[in-house]
Design brief:
By secondary structure, this protein is of the alpha/beta class. It is 44% helix and 13% strand. A six-stranded parallel β-sheet has the order 8-7-6-9-10-11, sandwiched between helices. A five-stranded parallel β-sheet has the order 2-1-3-4-5, with helices on both faces. Helix 12 links the parallel strand 10 and strand 11.
Length: 378
């Protein structure tokens, strides 16, 4: 069965569909022939159109930037899909996310359409992603109306919705009245590495790991502040980021690391604690990676962190994100290696049950086959 996989390649979305597609390509017995399409980056002319903004109005959310970008990208995706379907008839399409699928609603009459979501627009409309200030919140019912309408049409037409987390599934059912049978959680998945064995022995300078392309939004400055005040001289801080950051005593910066590469795996192998003080998140894929590698975690209670860390049983979950709370949690994790390892072991079991790419590829293949078998074009 030939299936198109369309990925939004911005932020953490870039790593969502790739592992599933690679697994499907490795396993012909699942009978899925993936065809890959990139929603982004856009060609230069479309990028200029999608990125047009009016700074004075953007501050208030009145320049239409959010709707314009999604309109241009989703139309670009539709043209690519129609061209691909003309060359190689498709049995189904899987697209991540609804932002790049808004123009695909008519295609749902021709083939099963699966839509993956890390957040619904209803959720985003309650966060700084869509409403960063009080005036934009006031104008939101009008500025976001077209997006919300098109998203509802897409959700209604899709054969199946694949939220990344249970929280997104809850929003689909509560905010959109989507039937439970149409919603199946498909979280970010990865090939599980070999689990760590036992409690790691004491180290003179344990390694703290931070992973985040956007250093500021992911809480990097707060972590560095805490490190300088409390942990410099007795620990190392390794920053994996694309943001230009200056190394200093005790702080090493790793730029250009590719997920899955040997240097990337080495950082996880050496880490004693992942610190994730992100201030704005829809999911937090790095937490899944830490769970899979068996690395203890300190995380802000943001995105899907509460769900991923089992309410704090699989890591330290900060209900308040400030220097004092972050410092205390890091100190507790480093001072209690047995407790940290117990939390990491529970997290690893959670990863094995929920985030194993082999099992999730099998689930996706079964959903696609069932949807195709029951599909009747008008």
């Amino acid at each position: 069965m030939r299936v198109a996989f369309v990925n939004e390649n911005t932020l953490g979305h870039a790593s969502y569909l790739r592992p599933l597609v690679r697994e499907l390509e490795r396993r012909p017995e699942l009978e899925i022939e993936p065809r890959w399409l990139d929603a982004t980056p856009l060609p230069p002319a479309l990028e200029r159109r999608a990125g047009f903004t009016i700074p004075g109005l953007r501050r208030w959310g009145l320049d239409g930037a959010r709707a314009r970008w999604r309109k241009v990208v989703s139309a670009h995706v539709r043209r690519q899909l129609e061209a691909l379907d003309a060359r190689e008839p498709l049995a189904a399409t899987v697209v991540n996310t609804q932002s790049v699928a808004l123009a695909l609603t008519p295609l749902a009459a021709r083939m099963p359409l699966f839509v993956c979501l890390d957040a619904t627009f209803a959720q985003l409309a309650r966060t700084p992603w869509f409403v960063p200030n009080a005036p934009s919140r006031w104008f939101a019912p009008w500025t976001l109306a077209s997006l919300r309408r098109r998203e509802r049409e897409l959700v209604s037409a899709a054969a199946r919705l694949l939220p990344w987390s249970e929280a997104v599934g809850l929003s689909l059912r509560a905010d959109y009245a989507v039937p439970t049978a149409k919603v199946s959680v498909l979280p970010p998945s990865l090939e599980l590495p070999v689990a760590r064995a036992g409690v790691r022995g004491p180290r003179a300078r344990p390694q703290l790991l931070f992973v985040g392309g956007d250093f500021t939004r992911k809480g990097g400055p707060l972590l560095c502040e805490c490190f300088r005040r409390e942990f410099a001289g007795r620990a190392e801080l390794h920053l994996v980021t694309q943001t230009p950051v200056t190394a200093e005593a005790g702080i090493r910066v790793h730029r250009g690391l590719v997920a899955g590469s040997a240097p990337w795996r080495e950082r996880w192998a050496q880490a004693d604690l992942l610190v994730f003080p992100s201030r704005l998140e829809t999911f937090g894929i790095v937490l899944v990676e830490a769970l899979a590698f068996g690395v203890p975690i300190v995380s802000a209670d943001v995105g899907a962190a509460r769900e991923l860390l089992l309410g704090g049983r699989a890591g330290w979950l900060l209900e308040r994100l400030d220097a004092a709370s972050l410092t205390t949690a890091i100190g507790e994790a480093l001072a209690q290696p047995a407790l940290a390892q117990a939390k990491a072991t529970l997290g690893r079991r959670h990863a094995e049950q929920q985030f194993d790419v082999r099992a999730n590829a099998e689930r996706l293949a079964a959903w696609l086959a069932a949807a195709r078998a029951g599909f009747s074009p008008p």
